[in-house]
Each structure stands twice: as structure tokens, then as C-alpha cells.
Amino acid sequence: MKSFKAITTDKDLIGKSALLIDDNVTNLRILKGHCELWGMHADIATSGADGLLLLANTKFDVVIIDMLMPDMNGIDVAIMISEKYGSGLPLVLFSSAGHFPVDRKPDRKYFKAILDKPIKQAYFKKMLVDTLAKKKAPVTEEKIELPVAKAEASDHADLHILVAEDNIINQKIVVKTLKSIGYSCDVVANGLEVLSSLNRQHYDLIFMDVQMPEMDGLEATRKIIDQYGEKKPIIIAMTAGAYEEDKQKCLEAGMDDYITKPFDFDNFYFKFNLWKGKMAK
Question: How far apart are CA 204 and CA 158, in angstroms?
Fold first, then answer.
């Protein structure tokens, strides 16, 4: 079981998003809690129809479907998802005692995995890792992507980072993501605490949530610019707004860049390394 707690396991799950479809609300609550514990974002739907509506508006990395649901069973939901979104979206089926109808055996091809119920936490996590982990070449641990990122991080080990985020789950995601490449950070929960932290010490980079209580990220950014001018830290917005107007508001407030939530691990690293490189010049 210890293999499920490896650093690479956290990397593969942090920032990923899952859609959970099940008519049993208790099961949904349990699975959602597991996902969030491992740094994932999870949305829930109590029917296949509701799940399809969520998919029409949100991008997910994996969809987990219960087999036995009223109106539309898990296999039929999977077929509809596959027809619309192709095979690039992994689908996982939960079924009591691994039951799969004999007359539907050809439809097993739609699923990356089929798990028995009741669901054990360790097997659920292993399934997610196996499904979401990027395919890596059979090389030694020193040659995979994460250690390379650590080597780059050592060039600027004195980089001072502040994370402003009121959501505890998102705080953990950012902290663990930075830690995985060798960086530590300070964490605050609103814009007022950002200003207070800057009065105490210098920060090179701030990951700033846009919507926070007491003082939001936009107002905090404007006050930072008023106080520090060109000597301000680099500010990267963290926003759940994916529309162009949301991004424009961040830039107009004086933020240097933005990343959208739920977090995409690769995009987070891209933006981090981009601005880290600019600061080094």
C-alpha cells in the first residue's frame, strides 16, 4: 500500500478534475472527499443527464460512472460521452461485484477501468493514478520530468513566494505543487493579509486568488501597484473565470498573468517557469 503514497502519485493527481456520476448521494460525497484529499477537483452529478450537462460546460480529466442508475445506466452514459468527446476522455465504471451484463460485453471497450463496489480508498486512488498518470518511458527515476524541474528550481532557491487563497483545498494544491519542485511558500487567505505580509518582507512572486473575502485579489493588486510601483512582485492571478473578460480584468488590475481553476499541473509549471526565467534576467 505504501506505493500509493509516492511523490509521483501526488503529482499525477494534483490539479486534475473528475466528474462523478452516481444516483447515490452518500457515495458521491465519499468519492468527492477522497478526490479533494489528493489535490483534485471533483464535480458531482446524480444522473447521466446531469453529468452530460456538466460535460458540456466543463473540461474534466476523468469521468467516473456508476453502473446501476435510473433512466440511464452507466454503460449508456459512457457511450453517449464517447460519441461526443471521443476516446481521449478516460471513463471508469463502478459496478457491484464487478457485474457487467453479458449481452453488453462489447461495450467494455468504452472503459479504462471497471471497479467493484463497495469502493476501497486505496484501490480508488491507484485506479486514478493508473488512469491519469502520463505515459513515461522506462527510464530511471532521475530522468523523468519531476526531478528535472527540481534541478531547475535549485538555480533560484532563494525565490520568495506568497500564495493568497482562501480555499483550504486550493491552498494545499498550490503548496504541494511548489514543494514537488523544491520551493516553499507562505500562505495567506485574503488581500489584507497580502498587504500585511508585504510590509513585513519582500516577495518575488505572488499567486493571487481573484475572489477572496475582506479584500479580493484585484483590489489587493491595485494597492500593491500604488505602494510599490515597478518594484512590485510578479503577480499571477488564480481565477475560476475562464472567459476572456475575466482574464482581461486581471490584466487591467495590473496582474502579470493568470492561471485558471481547477488547476492544470502542466500549465501551472509553464507559467511558473516562464516568470521565474524573466526574473532571472
Answer: 9
